[in-house]
Design a protein that fits this description.
By secondary structure, the chain is mainly α. Helices cover about 90% and strands about 0% of the residues.
C-alpha cells in the first residue's frame, strides 16, 4: 500500500505539472491566434480597399485615354472672319491664332499624359502592395489553420489529463506495485503448497498409527 500511495502521489504530481504546462501553452497559443486573426482582418481590409482604388484608377485612366484621343482628333475651327467688320482676318493673324491653338492642344495632351503616368504608377504600387499582402494573408491563413489543429490536440491532451486526475491511479499502471504484487502471489502460492504438503503428511501418519 505504501508503494501505491507513493506512486499515486508522484503520478498526480506529474499530471498536475503536465496540465499546468498544457494550460500555459494553450493560453499562449490562443493569444497568438487572436493576434493572427486581427492581422488577417487588417490585411484583408487593406487588400479590399486597394483593389477598390485600382478599380477607381482604371476608370480614371480610361477617361483620360478618351480625352487624349478626342483631343488628338480636334482640328482648328477658329474664326477667319473679323466679327467687327466682317472682313477676312489677315493671314498673319490667322497663322498666329492657329499656332496658339496648336500649342494649347499639345500642352493639354501632355497634361493628360502626365496624369495618366501618375495614375499608372500609383496603380502599379497598389498592385505590388496587394501581391505582397496577399502572400502575407495566405501565410496567416496557413498559420492559423496549423495553430487551430495544434490547439485541438492540446485540448484533447488536457481532457485526458483531467480524466486521469478524476479517475485516480490504477494500481496496475504502477510497475513497482505490479512487481511486488506478483512476488506476494508467488510467496502465497509457495506457502499454500507447503501447508498442503504438511496436511497430507499429518494425514498419512495419522492413518498409519
Amino acid at each position: 500500500q505504501r508503494v501505491l500511495n507513493t506512486a499515486r502521489t508522484e503520478i498526480l504530481k506529474d499530471a498536475y505539472a503536465k496540465k499546468t504546462a498544457l494550460d500555459s501553452e494553450i493560453f499562449c497559443l490562443k493569444n497568438n491566434l487572436s493576434a493572427a486573426k486581427v492581422s488577417r482582418g487588417i490585411l484583408q481590409s487593406n487588400i479590399n480597399r486597394e483593389k477598390d482604388d485600382v478599380g477607381i484608377i482604371d476608370v480614371q485612366i480610361d477617361k483620360l485615354r478618351s480625352e487624349w484621343v478626342a483631343k488628338s482628333k480636334e482640328e482648328y475651327s477658329g474664326e477667319t472672319i473679323c466679327a467687327a467688320c466682317g472682313q477676312p482676318l489677315p493671314e498673319a493673324r490667322i497663322s498666329e491664332t492657329i499656332e496658339v491653338w496648336k500649342k494649347a492642344k499639345i500642352e493639354c495632351k501632355e497634361s493628360i499624359n502626365k496624369k495618366g503616368k501618375e495614375l499608372t504608377q500609383r496603380k502599379n504600387e497598389l498592385l505590388y502592395n496587394i501581391e505582397r499582402e496577399q502572400k502575407e494573408l495566405d501565410n496567416l491563413y496557413e498559420e492559423i489553420g496549423s495553430s487551430m489543429t495544434k490547439l485541438e490536440n492540446l485540448e484533447k491532451e488536457v481532457e485526458l489529463v483531467n480524466k486521469d486526475l478524476d479517475n485516480g491511479v490504477d494500481p496496475e499502471s504502477v510497475e513497482e506495485y505490479v512487481k511486488l504484487a506478483g512476488e506476494i502471489r508467488q510467496l502465497e502460492n509457495v506457502h499454500s503448497y507447503d501447508v498442503n504438503v504438511l496436511n497430507e503428511k499429518y494425514s498419512t501418519e495419522s492413518l498409519e498409527s
